[in-house]
Amino acid sequence: QEQLVESGGGLVQPGGSLRLSCTGSGMLTKYYARGWYRQAPGKERELVARYIGGGSPLYADSVKGRFTISVDNGANMVYLQMDNLKPDDTAVYYCYAAPQPAPISSYFWGPGTQVTVSS
After folding, report:
1. Which of 6, 98, 99, 119 is the 20 to 30 Å CA partner of 54?
2. For the residues of 35-71, what is the DSSP string, one character each?
């Protein structure tokens, strides 16, 4: 059972930046997909950004141009650089790893890290 851990959340003012980090108990490079979801209060969990294999990253329309996903395979890390943050970005952010193209119920998840954007 893969164990993922996120870090880097916190409170930031609108327009500010945060960088989230994620590491796993196993090598994250072995997974079909890696990335980030988020869940705001009263809303469903939504995809923020992800890599599938060695392909180009995919972003939610709401974060394009503001968020950047990256990986450091040597350090076994996945990052999410978040710039120009908005109050609507407030959510719990979850790192995930998908072992194969399969339903979300098969994904491995971290416990989440809270991001709050407020003045």
Report:
1. 6
2. EEEEE-TTS--EEEEEEETTS--EE-TTTTTTEEEEE
Q: 12, 18 in Cβ contact below 8 A?
A: yes
Q: Are 67 and 83 in contact (CB under 8 A)?
A: yes
**For residue 112, what pLDDT is reported?**
97
Total Cβ atoms within 10 A of residue 64: 10
Distance CA 38, CA 112 (A): 8
Contact 12, 90 (CB under 8 A): no
DSSP conformational letter for 28: G
Residue whose token pair is 């991001």: 115
Bin 10: left if φ > 0, else alpha if -120 < ψ < 50, else beta.
left
Residue 67's alpha-carbon distances to 86, 96, 102, 104, 108, in angstroms, are 11, 17, 25, 22, 22
Mark the ranges of the chain whose per-residue pLDDT is less than 50: none
User: Helix or strand or coil: residue 84?
Assistant: coil
